[in-house]
Amino acid sequence: MNLTKRVKSMQCPRFVLTLLLVVSSMPSFGQSYVIGNGSTLSDGDTPAAKYPHPYLVGGLQLQGGGYAPTAWAGAVGVNVELKHLVLDSSASYAAAHKVNDNTINNHSGHQHGLDGNAFYRFNKLYLGGGASWSQLSTTNYTKQSWHPAIGVGRDWLREGFSMRGQVLFVLPGDDHLNGTQGPEFSLWLPSPAAAHHVFWRQTIGIYAFHETVTDPSDKVLTAEQVGSRFVTGYVSFNLMYRF
Prior knowledge:
The protein has 3 helices and 10 strands; from the N terminus they run ααβββββββββαβ. By secondary structure, the protein is mainly beta.
């Protein structure tokens, strides 16, 4: 029977009602109705997981700070979601290279790093911090630094929907060359508290830094370089698969 005729027929209300019931009973993409301990995902539940989950991440970065505008990036990591513990650690690689760093013929480069953060969970709110290490290797030079971080996050859990938001403030650490520091805002859909495999993760970083210190023994030059400050940032778009 022609679809237009069916919609116009007297059975239209029944057909529409049936369709709405079928659609409403289907789980949304990226969501789960259970959390790690097998209980129902609802507003009053506290997430918990039975064991650590390894994961893979891949995506695209948009960058400033003298880097090429775009770079592909990936990571492997482990995620733990317990009643009072949120733990995330990863090793990452990005095909990021410099295009504007006042050096000549610096055509290639990449960046790799290690990250680890632990948080204490108060129901859906968690507090904590960690540290990260990164190394930039280019045609002309290599530099690396450690950065401690402190932060806060929250899970929003509803039946059929979940989300996590997190803010980390990255401190300068031992980055004496540039003193890079600033906030990182991250969003997960659904929340990693949900017992699911596929997640969308987006991170926005906004950093303040000073000119590269080229000769620490020259106090006047160093003071001038440290006093010359800039702001840059990056945005990453990632798909995460958790086992």
